[in-house]
Amino acid sequence: MKKKFLIRSFGCQMNKLDTNLVVNSFIQSGFELTDQPAATDIVLINTCSVRRHAEERVLSLLGHLKHIKKTQPGIIVAVFGCMAQRLKEDLLSHEAVNIVCGPLQIPELVNLVNNDIPKQVAISDNIRHKPLLQDSERLDAFECAYDTAEDNLPAQAYVRVMRGCDNFCSYCVVPYVRGPEASRPPEKIIAQIKKLADAGIKQVTLLGQTVNSYCYNGSSFADLLYEVSKINGIEWIKFVTCYPRNFDEKIFKAMVDLPKICRYLHIPAQSGSDKILKAMNRGYTSAQYLEIIDKAREIVPDIAIAGDFIVGFSGETDEDFRKTVELVEKAQYKNCFIFKYSPRPGTRADDKLADDVPMEVKKQRNIELLAVQEKISAELNKSFIGKTVKVLVEGMSKKGHLDGATEKEYPQLIGRTAGDYIVVFDGPANLAGQFVDINITRASSLTLFGQTN
Ligand code: SAH
Ligand code: SF4
Ligand code: F3S
Q1: Which of these, 432, 427, 392, lies nearest to 411 by C-alpha position?
Q2: Measured in angstroms, how far is the CA atom of residue 83 from the centroid of ligand 3?
Q3: Residue from 50, 265, 336, 352 whose mutation best tests the ligand 1 pocket (most atoms within 8 A of CB)
Q4: Domains in the chain: boundaries
Q5: Ligand 3 pocket test, candidate residues 9, 10, 12, 106, most atoms within 8 A of CB
Q6: Please, which residues bridge with residue 80 across strands?
Q7: Does ligand 1 lie within 6 Å of residue 310's CB atom?
Q8: Which of 12, 13, 162, 174 to mutate to test the pocket of ligand 2 (most atoms within 8 A of CB)?
Q9: How many Cα atoms are found within 13 Å in the side-chain-facing hemisphere of 311?
């Protein structure tokens, strides 16, 4: 009988891609995926360290598993990904944990589970050492072999173009858990996407922590976009995340030249205060940031822009926060992700700066900034009413089930536009993975609603 495994993920798109690779490698090796905790032999947990909350969720799951293992001691629990790399052997001493595996060791995870040794750890001892050539080749081969459509996103796949990060923003744990920045060879990326296209993938999202600074032997990110655009079968190309420094304008030109490149830019600012940006080690001012997005709109007038902000960073005064509000108002984002500063052990901000903004103030600023953005999003979304947009259908909308969709002829479906706007509409479930035109009839600050025409 096949051994069953269950997998849980906490984290970003990079993390979801890793989960997908791990799932496929396990299935290929003869394991069977289950979502029934009571029936599983193996529990795999893909972890994130970016904020304390992400780690707390994993610890609470491990607490739960500790109890389950009292009655089912044979279950193997493997913790992998960023938090595994950060906490290393400490995690191994948790009663529930059998295997700790870093993000650069995931190709070994199947073997670790097969080993039948009670406690095992595979992590990079010094993750800031440039990965050896053999390591990158091994990771590339793993990536190519197991990349497929994302779970719940038919016809869509994530494709990593860069690993790691060298930016060392003072608050951020990523360079310490994902290692140094390394761009993958373009020919490997192209071969991988061709394979995905042959398997029916229509949209690829190119992933990197600073995807716009992709560079391999003189080939830039813009060059890569031109190459990926040539691949038959791929209809939409998205990419995240862009870093607002040394922005190559050729990327905007590629968006205008190449119809497959989605006119969507996720470009986190983090703060509108130059003092805070400096303390964050971001390497740009708010004016320089605005110049980049002005340039983007000049070259690509209908571009949709999204941002990230951290509120309550060390030393952030009311005046600094006002500057963030001003930046959000000027930037006219389609949407923003807003986070309360969470000090991460081992980062420069945690070592050198006090976490001196009280939680209550962080919460208040978070609510206020969200409200400012909500108004902007609501206005932008309203401008879609009466228009027709093309969406790639993802599947059933969660609300569709709650709204008693069964009483209707069709369930509610959810899809996204090239600009990453979320669209909810009624339609047959077999539209998942297809492109459809939707007439927009209604809009809220988060969602566009419409009908197929
Ligand atoms: N590489 C991307 C971001 C990756 S982390 C970039 O630089 O844009 C995703 C987001 O998490 C960041 O944009 C930031 O807004 C947030 N974040 C990172 N570290 C954080 C921390 N310590 N506390 C709160 N939010 C954080
Ligand atoms: Fe973290 Fe900065 Fe790198 Fe983004 S660019 S992953 S915020 S260090
Ligand atoms: Fe992603 Fe979290 Fe790691 S945001 S890169 S999974 S720390």
Answers
A1: 427
A2: 8
A3: 50
A4: 4-122, 128-262, 269-382, 388-452
A5: 12
A6: 46, 101
A7: yes
A8: 174
A9: 26
Provide the CATH number for the domain formed by 128-262 in this structure: 3.30.750.210
Residue range 388-452, CATH number: 2.40.50
Cut 0.70: pTM above it: yes
**Contact (Cβ atoms closer than 8 angstroms) between residue 250 and residue 289:** no
Give the architecture (CATH level 2) of 269-382: 2-Layer Sandwich (3.30)
* Strands 304-311 vs 182-183: parallel, antiparallel or unpaired: unpaired
Q: Which CATH number fits domain 4-122: 3.60.10.10, 3.30.300.30, 3.40.50.12160, 1.10.10.10?
A: 3.40.50.12160
User: Is the CB–ligand 3 distance for residue 65 below 6 Å?
Assistant: no
**Cβ atoms of residues 249 and 299 within 8 Å:** yes
Q: How far is CA 149 from CA 117, 266, 307, 423, in A?
A: 33, 22, 26, 21
pLDDT tens per residue, the chain (453 residues)?
Answer: 899 999 999 989 999 999 999 999 999 999 999 999 889 999 999 999 999 999 999 999 999 999 999 999 999 999 999 999 999 989 999 999 999 999 999 999 999 999 989 999 999 999 998 877 788 999 999 999 999 999 999 999 999 999 999 999 999 999 999 999 999 999 999 999 999 999 999 999 999 999 999 999 999 999 999 999 999 999 999 999 999 999 999 999 999 999 999 999 999 999 999 999 999 999 999 999 999 999 999 999 999 999 999 999 999 999 999 999 999 999 999 999 999 999 999 999 999 999 999 999 999 999 999 999 999 999 999 999 999 999 999 999 876 544 444 455 677 999 999 999 999 999 998 999 999 999 999 999 999 999 997
Question: Are both 128-262 and 388-452 of the same fold?
Answer: no
Q: Is 48 helix (H, G, I), strand (E, B) or coil?
A: coil
Instruction: Kindly identify the ligand whose nearest atom is closest to the C-alpha of 160.
Output: 3
Ligand 2 and 175: CB distance under 6 A: yes
Give me ligand 2 centre to Cα 169, in Å.
Answer: 5
